[in-house]
Design brief:
The chain is mainly α. The chain has two domains: 1-56, Homeodomain-like (Arc Repressor Mutant, subunit A, Orthogonal Bundle), CATH 1.10.10; 57-240, Orthogonal Bundle (Tetracycline Repressor, domain 2), CATH 1.10.357. The chain has nine helices and no strands. Helix 2 (37-44) crosses helix 3 and helix 4 (58-82) runs antiparallel to helix 5 (87-119). This is AcrR family transcriptional regulator.
Length: 241
């Protein structure tokens, strides 16, 4: 189910994808608990028995959808980071991309994670052995890489407690998404790219400031100004599309 793969899907894989897509759509529109495997089968154009041939339960479908979200989150982040060549730009991009992806499809990932945690009462007792943790870890390693490279470039302090900063970063992003969700107007289910970018920057700046090496203020300020100019250009271009 990797979108990077150039190999055509087999008939069996295509059927599994259709079932996942149907489940994702129904979970988004009706909610997990109001979507039956019979409805999923009908939407996918297969029998209910076929659904269970691919996924042992509706809960297994839920887990596979969440894993797919993390794979796409990691993939889009990797692509964007590859195009950026300084730590501050990468740091800001990771934040914006995280919020954008989490907020997509009417905040579907957050809603599904809430269901997953409620269905797995003992999840946190065996968190590190869960498949969700493994996919999450692959993604959060990207943050670790940005910080380590920033330290190697002497842009960031050597004494940074990486695990604490990682928790602060992603914790801020997760809470930020909830805050943005509360700010949606009636009937509005998507946030503008401009609002996402501005909010990500607001959350990121104090975290970055706490990590950077003193004496690099001018350089980092210059980098931030360049990023802001590029963002304004992007906003103008978006306005003409």
């Amino acid at each position: 189910m990797n979108s990077r793969s150039s190999k055509p899907l087999s008939r069996q894989q295509e059927r599994g994808q259709k079932i996942l897509q149907a489940a994702t759509q129904l979970f988004s529109e009706q909610g997990y608990h109001h979507s039956s495997t019979r409805q999923i089968a009908k939407a996918a154009g297969v029998s209910e028995g076929t659904v269970f041939n691919y996924f042992e339960s509706k809960n297994a479908l839920l887990e596979e959808i969440i894993k797919g979200f993390y794979e796409r989150l990691t993939e889009t982040a990797q692509d964007g980071l590859h195009e950026r060549h300084n730590s501050l730009d990468q740091f800001n991009f990771l934040a914006k991309n995280h919020i954008r992806m989490i907020a997509a499809d009417n905040f579907l990932l957050m809603r599904l994670l809430a269901v997953y945690f409620s269905e797995h009462f003992n999840f946190y007792l065996d968190y590190q052995n869960s498949s969700i943790f493994k996919h999450s870890k692959s993604y959060t390693r990207l943050f670790d890489r940005i910080i380590r490279e920033g330290i190697a470039r002497k842009e960031l302090r050597k004494d940074i407690k990486l695990s604490a900063m990682r928790d602060l970063f992603f914790g801020s992003m997760e809470y930020g998404v909830r805050s943005l969700l509360a700010q949606l107007e009636p009937g509005e289910n998507q946030l503008s790219d401009r609002k996402l970018r501005q909010y990500a920057k607001t959350l990121c700046q104090p975290i970055w400031e706490s990590m950077k090496v003193r004496g690099h203020e001018h350089q980092n300020r210059r980098e931030l100004e360049i990023c802001e100019r590029l963002e304004r250009v992007a906003e103008r271009l978006e306005g003409h599309l």
